[in-house]
């Protein structure tokens, strides 16, 4: 849909869907309505994850595309942390309403940033590259103007002709060329490793696994301790993603990904050792530190890097389709690990599950070293040609 109707329109619709889902969650009357409303939120999140990175990649300068794409991931981590802190505040102010009004307020407040996002997105320019691809040159000129770049319509036409010539030379008119297919496969496999190496285990199950570090008893205390643990891990995620933002264009995608997956191997093994050989407070502290540094490694080298390459390695003509397909693979992999973890934990025990995740991260290191090319400081057209040369 974004290839047909544009990046901006779909981003506005996504924010609207998110707001509707959040409000329906707050006023839900039964379980079925709650599931439907949360599914709407999931649709908006999934669509945004595919479109936003493509939008950023299409207007960002080559030497800043990495950092601008990481800003998106960084703001996501900030949003997650803020949501934890708001929930903590709500439960602290009215602990007696934790089973009635509090959770509705937590869900419903999600509509506030969604509505703000919808209003701000309405003022954004459409992607200049998408407009060029559709032959809408006057609108392309206006979009550049909103970005602070003054160009004439003749200059826009000249740029379109040059891109058309480059595309003809690279035979990109065939849309899904062998190089594009190679890029798609590499991004999808990267996304699979991004999820099955276990990043969402500490985020989704860490509060339950580590609640004993803070819990003093009772349902409210259990909820609060889980949120406190999640907030600590969320803060680590925010801080670490800042370093990804700072270094992604200097160090490059490939090196950061190698270092990130390698760090995930090391710190997941440390956490596994804490689970297997320690007890009491020492066990909790070591596991917490292991999880924290595991998250930091992911945030610096893996989380934003995956979404960045998803937005920059495909030609404009199929970027929406390819980015959406890769995002689908990412979320399916996310779903798989979330569903399988409780079963694996029961069957093998937590320490062995952690070692399995560490082994998968080691395989990811080998995959990145063998197949992921460096794309820093290249235009999106040059990035596409890198994969065409590799496929040849």
Structure write-up:
With 392 residues, the protein is mainly α. It is 82% helix and 0% strand.
Rg, Cα atoms, Å: 22 Å
Total strands: the figure is 0
Strand content: under 5%
Name the helix and strand elements from N-terminus to C-terminus, one letter apiece: HHHHHHHHHHHHHHHHH
How many helices does DSSP assign?
17
Mean pLDDT: 90
Low-confidence stretches: none
User: What kind of sheet is the major sheet?
Assistant: none
N-to-C span: 31 Å
What percent of residues adopt helix (DSSP H or I)?
Answer: over 70%
Specify the structural class: mainly alpha
Overall 3D geometry?
globular
Write the SSE topology.
Layout (H helix, E strand, L loop, with lengths): L1 H4 L1 H20 L4 H29 L5 H29 L7 H8 L2 H11 L6 H6 L3 H10 L6 H18 L7 H19 L3 H11 L8 H33 L1 H25 L2 H33 L6 H30 L1 H22 L8 H12 L1
Helix pairs in contact: 2-3, 2-5, 2-6, 3-4, 3-14, 3-15, 4-5, 4-12, 4-14, 8-9, 10-14, 10-15, 10-16, 10-17, 11-12, 12-13, 12-14, 13-14, 13-16, 14-15, 15-16
Summarize, please:
This protein has 392 residues and is mostly helical.
């Amino acid at each position: 849909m974004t290839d047909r109707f544009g990046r901006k329109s779909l981003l506005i619709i996504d924010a609207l869907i998110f707001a509707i889902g959040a409000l329906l969650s707050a006023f839900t009357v039964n379980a079925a309505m709650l599931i439907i409303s949360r599914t709407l939120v999931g649709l908006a999140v999934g669509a945004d994850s595919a479109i936003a990175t493509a939008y950023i990649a299409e207007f960002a300068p080559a030497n800043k595309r990495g950092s601008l794409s990481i800003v998106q991931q960084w703001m996501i981590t900030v949003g997650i942390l803020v949501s934890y802190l708001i929930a903590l505040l709500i439960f602290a102010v009215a602990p007696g309403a934790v089973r009635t009004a509090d959770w509705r307020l937590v869900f419903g407040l999600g509509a506030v940033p969604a509505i703000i996002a919808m209003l701000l997105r309405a003022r954004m320019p459409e992607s200049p590259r998408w407009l060029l691809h559709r032959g809408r040159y006057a609108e392309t000129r206006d979009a550049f103007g909103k970005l602070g770049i003054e160009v004439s319509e003749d200059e826009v036409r000249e740029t379109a002709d040059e891109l058309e010539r480059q595309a003809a030379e690279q035979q990109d008119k065939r849309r899904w060329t062998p190089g594009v297919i190679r890029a798609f496969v590499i991004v999808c496999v990267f996304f699979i490793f991004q999820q099955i190496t276990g990043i969402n285990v500490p985020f989704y199950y860490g509060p339950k696994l580590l609640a004993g570090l803070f819990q003093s008893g009772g349902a409210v205390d259990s909820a609060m301790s889980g949120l406190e643990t999640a907030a600590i891990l969320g803060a680590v995620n925010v801080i670490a993603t800042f370093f990804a933002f700072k270094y992604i264009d200097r160090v490059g995608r490939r090196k950061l990904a190698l270092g990130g997956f390698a760090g995930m191997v090391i710190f997941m093994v440390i956490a596994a050792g804490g689970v297997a050989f320690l007890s009491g407070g020492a066990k909790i502290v070591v596991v917490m530190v292991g999880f924290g540094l595991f998250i930091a490694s992911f945030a610096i080298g893996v989380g934003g890097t995956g979404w960045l390459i998803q937005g920059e390695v495909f030609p404009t003509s199929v970027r929406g389709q390819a980015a959406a397909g890769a995002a689908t693979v990412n979320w399916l992999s996310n779903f798989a690990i979330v569903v399988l973890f409780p079963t694996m934990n029961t069957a093998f025990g937590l320490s062995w599950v952690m070692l399995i995740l560490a082994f998968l991260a080691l395989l990811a290191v080998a995959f990145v070293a063998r197949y992921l090319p460096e794309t820093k400081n290249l235009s999106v057209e040059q990035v596409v040609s890198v994969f065409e040369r590799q496929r040849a």
